[in-house]
Task: structure prediction
Amino acid sequence: MFTEIKTSANTAGKPRGRGRPPGPTAQGAAAKKRLYDIGVKRMARHGYEMTTLRDVAKDAGVSVGLLYRYFPSKRAVIFALYDELSADYVTTTAAMRPGTWRDRALFALRSSLDVLRPHRTTLRGLIPVLVGDPDEGVFGEQAEFSRVRVLGVFQDAVVGASDAPPRPLAEAIGRLFYLVHLAVLLWWLLDKTTSQRATDALVQLFAGILPSAAMTLRLPFVRRFVLSVDALVREALFADPVKAGA
Amino acid sequence: MFTEIKTSANTAGKPRGRGRPPGPTAQGAAAKKRLYDIGVKRMARHGYEMTTLRDVAKDAGVSVGLLYRYFPSKRAVIFALYDELSADYVTTTAAMRPGTWRDRALFALRSSLDVLRPHRTTLRGLIPVLVGDPDEGVFGEQAEFSRVRVLGVFQDAVVGASDAPPRPLAEAIGRLFYLVHLAVLLWWLLDKTTSQRATDALVQLFAGILPSAAMTLRLPFVRRFVLSVDALVREALFADPVKAGA
Result:
């Protein structure tokens, strides 16, 4: 399949073997990955709105018909991006060691920056879609699979810790940490300092104050506050209190 | 000038009176306001990227040449939007009463939601520019005038309070409140609950915990934390430590 794409460079516009589905072969996966990389690169450079599938096909030297079989829309490329990055993230955080929920949640936070670091330019170009688009953004319905996957890492970090708070609170802390991680990522994408030094410094400061902040969780009104904010997050941003809490 | 625009509807494409600058007359201002309203409306509906000055001129029934004299670029429309909304905000918060810094900063926060509420649909459509564009976004150089104007309201709220903390800390708290207000606005734009009920609930929760949070400012390490985060915000997001602190 990969060969087919290569050779079709000179016959762009004439869809070949149209009836044959891409299929889950290794070559098919490699071809899809190549088209995906080209699509993401183009969107990062020219912006999501200004990119058409025709442009991507041209960059890849394949017919629009062939590209369409892998990615029927621009959205499909964005969802593939979520899928790739969240899968990388799960792989990276699989090495999470036993410990306190603070250490584990901080590890989850820092790992997200490590995983995304090589993709910063791409993600910067895609902020408009990631943040701004109700359907294709990180809080959109279609991103739910990847969102729940990443959210799961933060929840497990807290729930599976040696000093895990009781269940409903532990899950709420995990979800709020997930939200903090999104805020840190946005800060990191906008960070104007060299090598985003200020982002690392921010995470360091946050890590420094976290033990004291965690102590306040012993106070009933702080617990109530955390649970209330969590309920609002699920309602306002995830629009799916039940599933997000599962 | 307003009449000129009206009648040029049938001669779109033929710039009339090209040599005459718009000038700061009342009619000129009214004409500019009308073109601005049409431009913002179109961007909100079709997205910033997909809007051209030609489209806006067509919607307004004026020549591109005439439109160009008021708004030489799409950016100019965005900067006019910042200017309008931040001026409205300053007018609204001019009624700020004496009191504690917490009450005054909360008033500043709630006022920003009040001022922006009628423009939510527009701003939602413009999230990609507001957040995602390094040059035209709220942290961009060009938005500095409006940004400093709004920031000033939050700083004055804290510095001019009956219980204002000493100077460098008071200013830092004002700036961090400004950042909280931006985060709340982003939450509000993404809020999926009816009438953004969850945003009001969030502000209410925040108001409820603020007195206790403020008490922790007596602890030296909390003060150090606030000052350090503030220094990072200025460096990472405003990229202008000196002016932002003026």
Q: What stands out?
A: The first helix of chain B runs from residue 2 to 7. The radius of gyration of chain B is 21 Å.
